[in-house]
Amino acid sequence: MKRTLLIFVYLFLVFTATVVCAQSVSNPSNTPKMKFLIHVTQSTENPTVAALAFLVAKTALEEGHSVSIFLAGDAVKLLQESTLNTLTGLGTGKLREHYDAIVKQNGRFYLSGNSSKARGVTEEDLKGKPAEFALPTVLVKLATESDRVFTY
């Protein structure tokens, strides 16, 4: 009788462990979601890196994480339609495709106001886009609130 009870308890524990393991493998939503900040300074002079930044942002959003993208320096030009439509990275894809996926997944863009002004990026360039001009204080705030910061 005691042996039968021990076998039953052993089988119950093995079954329970198997179910728990199977649930955690088949349900990736158990993985904690993170907040990412992608800080981009590369633009048309380095299209592969610029497109890579957007590809990483797109991928994180597809995995259920939240993403903010801060464009500074020459990178502010990435949201101009002419650049969105023409930039392609070597092995990192088309900027337009990544941008559209980021927008669809509720990604948010912040553009350095000073960099934008110096490079002729205007409110008209941001019209209809989930983007806004921002000061360095916003970059610092986003960085402190994020779990991970990527810089391209």
SSE class: alpha/beta
If you consult CATH, what is the topology of the largest domain? Hypothetical Protein Ychn, Chain: A
SSE order, as H and E?
HEHEHEEHEHHEHE
In CATH terms, the superfamily of the largest domain is DsrEFH-like
Number of structural domains = 2
How much helicity do the residues have?
Answer: 40-55%
User: Describe the biggest sheet?
Assistant: 5 strands, parallel
First-to-last CA distance: 67 Å
Strand order of the largest sheet: 6-5-2-1-7
Radius of gyration: 22 Å
Number of helices: 7
Shape: globular
Which stretches are poorly predicted, pLDDT < 50 over at least 5 residues?
8-27
Whole-number mean pLDDT: 88
- Would you state the CATH class of the largest domain? Alpha Beta
Total beta-strand segments:
7
Which CATH architecture of the largest domain?
3-Layer(aba) Sandwich
User: Which percent band covers the strand fraction?
Assistant: 15-25%
Keywords: Signal
Signal peptide: 1-22
Protein name: Peroxiredoxin
InterPro entries: DsrEFH-like, Sulphur_relay_DsrE/F-like
SSE order and pairing:
Blueprint: H1 2-26, E1 35-40, H2 47-62, E2 66-71, H3 81-86, E3 88-89, E4 93-94, H4 95-104, E5 108-112, H5 113-119, H6 123-126, E6 131-134, H7 136-145, E7 148-151
Helix pairs in contact: 2-4
Protein name: Peroxiredoxin
Organism: Dyadobacter arcticus
Signal peptide: 1-22
